[in-house]
Amino acid sequence: MAELTDLGIAAIRDGVRDGEFSAREVAQAFIDRVAAAKALNAFLVETPDHALKAADAADAARASGDLKPMSGVPIGMKDLFCTEGVPTTAASGILAGFTPTYESTVSANLWAAGAGMLGKLNLDQFAMGSSNETSAFGNVISPWRRNDGGNAALAPGGSSGGSSSAISARLCPAATGTDTGGSIRQPAAFVGISGIKPTYGRCSRWGVVAFASSLDQAGAMAHDVTDCAIMLGAMAGFDPKDSTSLDLPVPDWAGSLSGSLKGKTVGIPKEYRVDGMPAEIEMLWEQGIAWLKDAGAEVVEVSLPHTRYALPAYYIIAPAEASSNLARYDGVRYGLRDLPDGAGLQDMYAATRAAGFGPEVKRRIMIGTYVLSAGFYDAYYNQAQKVRALIARDFEAAWERCDLLLTPTAPSAAFALGEKQADPLAMYLNDVFTVPASLAGLPAMSVPGGLDAQGLPLGLQIIGKPLDEQGVLDAGLAIEQRAGFSARPEQWW
Amino acid sequence: MTESTYRIQGATGEWEVVIGLEVHAQVTSQAKLFSGAATAFGAEPNTQVSLIDAAMPGMLPVPNKECIRQAVRTGMAIEAQINKWSRFDRKNYFYADLPQGYQISQLYHPLVGEGAIEVTLDEKDPDSPTKRIGIERIHVEQDAGKLMHDQHPTRSYVDLNRSGVALMEIVSRPDMRSPAEAGAYVKKLRSILRYVGSCDGNMEEGSMRADVNVSVRKPGEPFGTRTETKNVNSVRFVMAVVEIEARRQVDVIEDGGKVVQETRLYDPDRNETRSMRSKEDAHDYRYFPDPDLLPLELDDAFLEECRASLPELPDAKRKRYEGELGLTAYAAAVLTAEAETARWYEALLDACGDAGMAKAASNWLISDLFGALNRLGKDIDDSPVSPRQGAELLKLVADGTLSGSLAKQVFEIMLETGDDPAKIVEEKGLKQTSDTGAIEEVIAKVLADNADKVEQYKGGKEALFGFFVGQTMKAMAGKANPQVVNELLRKALS
């Protein structure tokens, strides 16, 4: 039998149900593996008791025939989700020592579905980053290495880099992520796993530390498409505590999953063929088209003419919202307080925020403050909102010709840590393919397609119509079945 | 519309004052605007604070429908346009009493648009001029918390009980031209809010406060530069601010200076305004649509319900009291100025069960009851005499059981004991007599004792009739029915 830690959600669920192993054995195996993987710096907090308690409940539920969709599955929780009694920092010094007295809706939903928590996962500070290098608690290291014999530490992607690294290294079978401009999809692509961001409003934002409210959306990250479908089903649902939550029933995505795309039309947006994109990514994209055709889909070229404005619009809207969302971290009520001797209120604000926020967070707060300020609001924020509306309209026009879109997830494979840190713009370019779907609030996922010449995973992105997570997951499954992606990083840690 | 003649006499001639008011009215609601926390006044610090009000990480606002409903009803009461599509914006600034670092307000798309109210400068004077004051908008926003600087020698404390409480900001047009108009506007607005039940109008507790915008100009010239005096919390203070601020501005200009656009504070102890901050160091609030909230869209059913739930408003009531009940303009104005008074009066009239008693009831309420309440220092809501008891008393007068003066005696006892008038009449034997035999006996004695006066009366000095009435009433300790006394006296003297 394979190692327990090689199993995904469905396999663990079935094995526990069929009595092949106990949930406690599963939890313990992952707990031990997490404890032995400090070198990856994927976990900020380990919560073995939480995982064991859920496992024991699952074993008891099995005895009484009362298993739930994720009974006995220990998962990792991105440290952007507030967890009752467990420190929550958003990987920022400003929240050092903060322990919520409340549980986010998404994590509460997962516990209600029988899952347990192995710990809180590292991330880019306040989810701002594409390489997990902005965490106040150190970089997360990808378990992958280039096949050039060197051992450069690679980025696991971001902002859900702790999640991607941990799943890929089999420290957990699945983890939550959040995606504001690609923070689930890009890290999933970098480490060869699957990740889905649902339609904006499917998952409640209540209890999730906010980055950019109109874009933030929680989602599932796991080894395969089926596991993503199961986990997303457990996370999603209407929440009256979030005004932007969708008051709609959650379909049985996992139960309806099908790799057949007969009768479906897949659009290939021509504007996503950007200059300087590696040939390997072009080739993978072509391969993806072939796989989808093989699954029965018709493939057409479509145009999303405003694509090139998506990234600049995103890097105005997201920082604008962030500059306001992060104003609450002021040292008055919780988290870090830096109160120099004889300081007044303004001094305390300045000292606290200077000490508590990392450079990327400060950069975005400053950008956001600038674009909202008097005299610049119309030129930047308002203009970006107009662009956002045009991008949404582009997609609406495309849906008249196709049901799904296929694109690469990221313009490159994982890069080495430190490689892009000096140039924020180069870093922001990572999000070029993922940002448009975020701006339009569309469901989108990344599935692994293959390896590049350096032996690093590459992902394909599927974007769906609003609320059509099913179509996205089905296409993901069609690729998964044909790609047969089985590469995994060699354990060096 | 009448032109105000209020003028400030300056060295260079007459000046006119221009006033606009932004009134912040706390919405009457059990819960805050975006959280379920309670809103009761006077609770222990920080006992009415939800995770949302304290802006804990990941907390989200959800609009409280009742607060929206109250603001819509208020808009309808001032005949304003209700915007079926409105939106919340964030007003960003840092302060210790503002946990989110922004106030959720409505800048670009307020809930309520253009409306107006009609004010009477002297509500007790039926001939007093009335004026329409335009209202530009009403928007809904969160209140901030409170800083306490007197709890510790070197530290300030924050009480977040008010943080997130719903406010309506009611913004007038710069339509007022005198302290009296500003005062009348605030009073009328408060009256409407209390009728609607959307704000208790309690200025002492801070549930209603005004930002007073004042500028001066030579009559006929364009508007001058205005100052804004913040958080003025009584009608009297609003009037005082207008007066002293206008005077100050005239003095500044006439001394060769310029009025600076700035925020000022009123100090009631010294009766002066002081500069708080000028336009140069005004905040850049970086307003933008709150991305945590969807636009507020109101459907017709909701609007209909709001409209149907509106009570009869003071102006309509006043006209009805004059037209249908035949009250004087003065009485109608007094009875309708406050919702509580009108409610009391209508309960009284109901208990009388006879619309014919409307005038008697109005007279009694305005002179006797108000007089007594004034003396006792009580509000009409704490009246020791209930409308039912008042009606009983009035009925005893109407059916001749009590004379006017007896009724006053009974009323005094009612105030003291809270007893019903019938019981008092019974126990104290205060019932007025219409027993003609008994009255005739007394009259005979009075006439016999005053034979000289009878002679004079018969000799043409008819004014003495009152003397005989008085003597008779006195002899009967006031209990004789005055009408019967009159009749019998006339007969006896003829």
From TrEMBL, chain A:
Task: Report domain Amidase positions.
Answer: 25-473
SUPFAM superfamilies, sorted: Amidase signature (AS) enzymes (SSF75304)
Pfam families, alphabetized: Amidase (PF01425)
- Nucleotide-binding in keyword set: yes
> InterPro entries annotated for this entry?
Amidase, Amidase_CS, Amidase_dom, AS_sf, GatA
Entry similarity comment: Belongs to the amidase family. GatA subfamily.
Q: What does this protein do?
A: Allows the formation of correctly charged Gln-tRNA(Gln) through the transamidation of misacylated Glu-tRNA(Gln) in organisms which lack glutaminyl-tRNA synthetase. The reaction takes place in the presence of glutamine and ATP through an activated gamma-phospho-Glu-tRNA(Gln).
Annotated protein name in UniProt: Glutamyl-tRNA(Gln) amidotransferase subunit A
Underlying gene:
gatA
TrEMBL record, chain B:
Question: What are the UniProt keywords, alphabetically?
Answer: ATP-binding, Ligase, Nucleotide-binding, Protein biosynthesis
Q: Which InterPro entries match?
A: Asn/Gln-tRNA_amidoTrfase_suB/E, Asn/Gln-tRNA_Trfase_suB/E_cat, Asn/Gln_amidotransferase, Asn/Gln_tRNA_amidoTrase-B-like, GatB, GatB_C_1, GatB_Yqey_C_2, Gln-tRNA_amidoTrfase_suB_CS
Q: What is its EC number?
A: 6.3.5.-
Question: Is Ligase there in the keyword field?
Answer: yes
Enumerate the SUPFAM superfamilies for this protein. Answer: GatB/YqeY motif, Glutamine synthetase/guanido kinase
Q: Which Pfam families match?
A: GatB_N, GatB_Yqey
Q: Any idea where the Asn/Gln amidotransferase domain is?
A: 343-493
Which reaction does this enzyme catalyse, per its entry? L-glutamyl-tRNA(Gln) + L-glutamine + ATP + H2O = L-glutaminyl-tRNA(Gln) + L-glutamate + ADP + phosphate + H(+); L-aspartyl-tRNA(Asn) + L-glutamine + ATP + H2O = L-asparaginyl-tRNA(Asn) + L-glutamate + ADP + phosphate + 2 H(+)
Q: Which Gene3D superfamilies match?
A: 1.10.10.410, GatB domain, N-terminal subdomain (1.10.150.380)
Similarity remark: Belongs to the GatB/GatE family. GatB subfamily.
Assembly, per entry: Heterotrimer of A, B and C subunits.
- State what this protein does: Allows the formation of correctly charged Asn-tRNA(Asn) or Gln-tRNA(Gln) through the transamidation of misacylated Asp-tRNA(Asn) or Glu-tRNA(Gln) in organisms which lack either or both of asparaginyl-tRNA or glutaminyl-tRNA synthetases. The reaction takes place in the presence of glutamine and ATP through an activated phospho-Asp-tRNA(Asn) or phospho-Glu-tRNA(Gln).
Note the PANTHER family from the entry.
Answer: GLUTAMYL-TRNA GLN AMIDOTRANSFERASE SUBUNIT B MITOCHONDRIAL AND PROKARYOTIC PET112-RELATED, GLUTAMYL-TRNA(GLN) AMIDOTRANSFERASE SUBUNIT B, MITOCHONDRIAL
In Swiss-Prot or TrEMBL terms, this protein is called: Aspartyl/glutamyl-tRNA(Asn/Gln) amidotransferase subunit B
